[in-house]
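stage 2 :: seqdesign
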């Protein structure tokens, strides 16, 4: 990590509590272990013009190259952590796509 990053972190660590009168404190974040992040499926939109006349939700796919699918069955957990994990998987795929695009 470069010196500007370290300077920014030190500044937050040193100044946050003083500036906020103790209302906010700085803490080094815990490491986040991501071993395997994978959605249930991936829909690749090959011919968007061919789905325009289909019933919903298929026409919505025309705006996308791919759609990460999360399948939920009766009895599956739909609590806050489950929703957040689904959002994390979607964001992880988006980061993966951005990295692939940057590599060319």
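stage 2 :: out
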């Amino acid at each position: 990590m470069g010196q500007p990053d370290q300077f920014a972190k030190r500044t937050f660590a040193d100044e946050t509590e003083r500036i906020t009168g103790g209302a906010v404190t700085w803490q080094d974040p815990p490491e986040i272990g991501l071993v395997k992040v994978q959605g249930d499926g991936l829909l690749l939109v090959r011919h968007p013009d061919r789905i325009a006349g289909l019933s919903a939700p298929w026409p919505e796919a025309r705006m996308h190259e791919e759609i990460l699918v999360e399948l939920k069955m009766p009895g599956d957990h739909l609590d806050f952590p489950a929703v957040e994990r689904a959002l994390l998987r979607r964001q992880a795929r988006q980061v993966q796509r951005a990295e692939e695009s940057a590599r060319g």
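stage 3 :: structure notes
- The chain has a mean pLDDT of 93.
- The two ends are 25 Å apart (CA to CA).
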